[in-house]
Amino acid sequence: MQVSLAQIDHLVEKIRSRVRQKPRIGIILGTGLGGLAETVLAATFVPYHELPDWPTSTVVGHAGRLVSGELEGQPVLVMQGRIHYYEGYSMAQVTMPVRVMQRLGIEILIVTNAAGAINPDYLPGEVMLITDHLNLTGMTGLNPLIGPNMDEFGPRFPDMGQAYDRELSALARNVAAQSGIQLHEGVYVGLSGPSFETPADLRFLRLAGADAVGMSTVSEVTVARHGGTRVLGISGISNKANLDGDTTTSHEEVLEAGRVLTPKLETIIRGLLRLL
Ligand code: HPA
User: Fold this and answer.
1) Is 207's pLDDT higher than 70?
2) Strand 41-47 vs strand 65-71: parallel, antiparallel, or unpaired?
3) Cβ atoms within 10 Å, residue 61
4) pLDDT tens for residues 118-133?
5) For atom 3 of ligand 1, which residue has the closest CA?
6) d(CA 237, CA 127)
7) Alpha helix locations (H) across 43-181?
8) Stretch 172-187: mean pLDDT
9) Angle 215-173-38 (CA atoms, 0-180°, nearest 5)?
10) Dihedral sign for Cα atoms in the order 95, 97, 99, 101
11) How confident is the model at residue 62, as a pLDDT?
């Protein structure tokens, strides 16, 4: 299903009528990582189901609401829970919230996710700065920009040479170092899910240069960059990817890791917001 500019702008009007502030920074919180949204000051909550045409989060670990308010003095709009392609929505629907944020005027998008470690040096509970991504869903025909180009946002063939903003990444790196948080850096590969990968999938992804694997983020970032929004991406490593087939991966494990990851992500994001 395509999403029209009229639908996007209708949502923008609805949200404007509910929240006081114009957001400067959009934040998308991944599975089990919603805690930061609870600490937003002067918060207004808009549950997704109260917004017309807004896809709802059906997954445990995603609250499913927008949180508008202030973090470290910055006007933010937080998605506490994201939409995934595997929930049955089209790529246009999955990325519609990014379009809405762009029309609301955000300059920067911070995306977080829970991811499996393909890089053998990463451990559950550690965090990775996303320096680039492998758009495997896009390569197989699920690019969110397929369809008539929305000229109001950006060009037909957007450049993706610097999907993740170098300046924002440098700031995040400094904040992590000053806070004593080990921050890996690597390539995130986005798959559709919902099944986890086979060991053969994982060996293939490792050879292709992926450090962490997940089921989100890439389409959102593609749409963000199409519209000229600057992006910072951070993965919370929730589990070690099962390259030899000897262990199992579960959603519960991903949620459990979120409890360790949330304070680290909060420290990095708050530190970054203070510098902006
Ligand atoms: N694979 C895919 N997606 C994930 C994983 C994983 O191991 N962990 C968290 N999201």
Assistant:
1) yes
2) antiparallel
3) 18
4) 999 999 999 999 999 9
5) 214
6) 6
7) 91-104, 136-139, 166-179
8) 98
9) 60
10) negative
11) 67
> What residues does ligand 1 touch, defined as CB less than 6 Å away?
114-116, 196-197, 213-215, 238-239, 241, 249, 254
CB 128 within 8 A of CB 186: yes
The model carries a pTM of 0.96
Q: In angstroms, rounded to a whole number, what is the distance separating the alpha carbons of residues 242 and 74?
A: 40
Domains within the chain, CATH numbers bracketed: 5-275 (3.40.50.1580)
Q: Whose CA is nearest to atom 4 of ligand 1?
A: 214
In testing the pocket of ligand 1, which one of 85, 218, 237, 238 has its CB within 8 Å of the most ligand atoms?
238
CA-based nearest residue to 270, from 171, 148, 146? 171
Confidence of residue 61 (pLDDT cuts 50, 70, 90): low
Structure tokens at 22: 């114009």
Helix, strand or coil, per DSSP, at residue 42: strand
